[in-house]
Amino acid sequence: MTPSDAVRRLALAHQHLGVVYHAARDFDRAQHHYSESIRLYEAQGDIYGAAQSRYDAALALANAGRPADARQYAEAALRGYQIYGSGAAEGVEHTLALIAIIAKAATP
Fold it and tell me: Percent of the chain having pLDDT more than 70?
């Protein structure tokens, strides 16, 4: 129902669908929607939006028991947030905390 040229709205819709599927523990569908969201945000040059979707994807992957994949997404999210400096301090903080949790979970 969203026009194909409304890229930001489509990206946000996919991000929200990812959140819904993550909450339902359907991690494969969540990942599909997060990937679409990232692709659409990047297509319009929205690095911050892509970082948010990458963080959400990392969280879902961590909850799915895929720490290596989760860490890759979290580190990519961190790089995206760091571009914005103090404007994304909260995103950086949350992502660093998530990376620490992922690292701890991956340690035998």
Answer: 94
Task: Spell out a b/e string for 59-90, using b for 16 or more CB atoms within 10 Å of the CB, else e.
Answer: bbbbebebbebbbbbbebbbebbeeeeeebee
DSSP-assigned letters across all residues of 45-97 = T-HHHHHHHHHHHHHHHHHTT-HHHHHHHHHHHHHHHHTTGGGGHHHHHHHHH
Where do the domains of the chain lie?
A: 7-106
Element (H, E) at 104: helix 89-106
Residue 106 confidence (pLDDT): 74
7-106 topology per CATH: 1.25.40
Q: What is the pLDDT of residues 18-68, one digit of tens each?
A: 999 999 999 999 999 999 999 999 999 999 999 999 999 999 999 999 999
Q: Shortest CA distance to 79 belongs to which of 91, 69, 70, 68?
A: 91
